[in-house]
Amino acid sequence: MIFDKNTAKKTAELLLQINAIKLQPQEPFVWASGWKSPIYCDNRITLSFPPIRNYLREQFAKHIENEYGKPDVIAGVATGAIGIGILVAEYLSVPFVYVRPEAKKHGRQNQIEGFIQKGQNVVVVEDLISTGKSSLNAVKALEAAEVNVKGMVAIFSYNFDIAKENFEKAEVNLHTLSNYENLLEQALDTNYITSGELETLENWRKDPANWNAN
User: Which among 62, 129, 162, 179 has most CB atoms closer than 10 A?
Assistant: First the structure.
């Protein structure tokens, strides 16, 4: 679920502007999963553009407080959301921790890095939602630490059905600044894509695992 339409369109505009998101329906990318995809998203690029990272930070902070109230801690999902998570925590003047994909094999064998206490209210920050598996893995680690996960926020979501199912099953509340539908709408409005390319991009979204650009 997006926070609001205006934020979704503006976020999509900014991500396209700096090529944090690229749309190439005629020359698809190949994901690590092996899927062919007409879209590639790397939201870490936003950290290199101060006005854009500040916009994302402030939108996150505003919507987090409106939706969940001011949390005790912001938790970023490693590694993509560490940067933006720190910025949001700084803006809200609350502590920050980050969650590894798995516990370290050495030292204190932490999965959660930083100081956190049982019973604290935590909002998780993520950069990108695809299936939601890795994001929800972070939530499980936090719940194992006996904190109260109020919800998760992310910059962008592909809005895959499997992600929706995974978040509903885990009973985790997810809000994003933008998503695939609003991205395509913004891209079409600004002539970034043609109506023909829009159809190709919409078809990919229906069945990404079996989609073929040809």
Answer: 129
The identity of residue 199, as a single letter, is E
How far apart CA 212 and CA 132 sit, in angstroms, is 23
Model pLDDT for residues 95-154, shown as the tens digit of each residue = 999 999 887 666 667 899 999 999 999 999 999 999 999 999 999 999 999 999 999 999
Exposure class string for 42-79: b at 16+ Cβ within 10 A, else e: ebbebbeeeebbebbbebbbebbeeebeebbbbbbbbe
- Residues forming a β-bridge with 2: 176
Indicate whether this model's pTM tops 0.85. yes
Which amino acid makes up residue 9?
K
In degrees rounded to 5, what are phi and psi of residue 152? -130, 145
pLDDT tens digits for range 154-207: 999 999 999 999 999 999 999 999 999 999 999 999 999 999 999 999 999 888
Rg (the chain; Cα; Å): 17
Angle between helix 5-17 and helix 50-68 axes, rounded to 10 deg: 160
CA within 13 Å, CB half, 97: 25
Helix (H) or strand (E) holding 157, with range, is: strand 148-157
Strands lying side by side in the sheet with 112-113: 112-113, 96-99, 73-77, 121-129, 148-157, 174-179
Check if CATH label 3.40.50.300 holds for domain 5-206.
Answer: no
